[in-house]
Amino acid sequence: MATSCCPEGSLPYLASDYSAKGTCVSAGAVDLYEAPVHGSPEHALILFSDIFGWNGSRLRSIADAFAMQGYLVVVPKMLTPALDGGCDGDALPAGGAFDAEWLKQFPWPVQQPKVEAALEYLKGKGAAKIGVVGFCYGGHPACWLSATHAEIVCGAVLHPSMQLEEKLFGGSTEALLKSVKCPFFLAPAGNDLPLWAESGPLGAALKASSRGDECVFTEYPEMKHGWSVRGDLADPAVARDVAAVLGEVSAFLSKHFSKM
Length: 260
What we know:
GO terms for molecular function: hydrolase activity. Pfam families: DLH. This is Dienelactone hydrolase domain-containing protein. The structure is a single chain. This protein has about 260 residues and is α/β, with parallel strands linked by helices. The chain is about 35% helix and about 15% strand. Strands 1-2-4-3-5-6-7-8 form an 8-stranded mixed beta sheet, sandwiched between helices.
């Protein structure tokens, strides 16, 4: 999948037989998958999908797992109108080829009302603190939400694709990264490097943000872009690194939610 979103050698769509435990709800400007609520959570997460959308690959199982940790979790349906029907009406269809012209219709000004509707939905459900987790494409709205809403506590992006800001939307990726207002954890795969190396220009831009000294990079050099949601867990190395990165994300979120 050689595109400006996913680097050469990225993983394709992964079919999942997971039976999601949550429900789909409307927040006005956007539909949401809401993971099962356990107790009365005051901390919430918005999970932004990769290019296979709100019901692609393992995303809902990850959302449900975060909910089990005590978070109120939603996954917004961001990439509509979908391409050729998408996956469950969102984003690319299973096995579909990336289409840059299609994705160009989703710059931040188009996505912002959807994201803010999700944010208000969580606040209405009692969330006092909110974080973001993005996968691939989802890193783009995750960073923009932090840049425009100082109340976002922290964020994480796995196999990042925020270069879309420059490649497709005519902006500056470095400027976007410098503008985020919360600490971020980034987990680039091997083929995300050197673009997303901590020592590179984009890493330096994130480190130059207002909370840049609290940002963390962990490289997964044996993995391919997309592994956290689209990697085959029958492969021991993939299973190891999926568990590792989700554990790192959980620890990072917990650390920053407990600070404030």
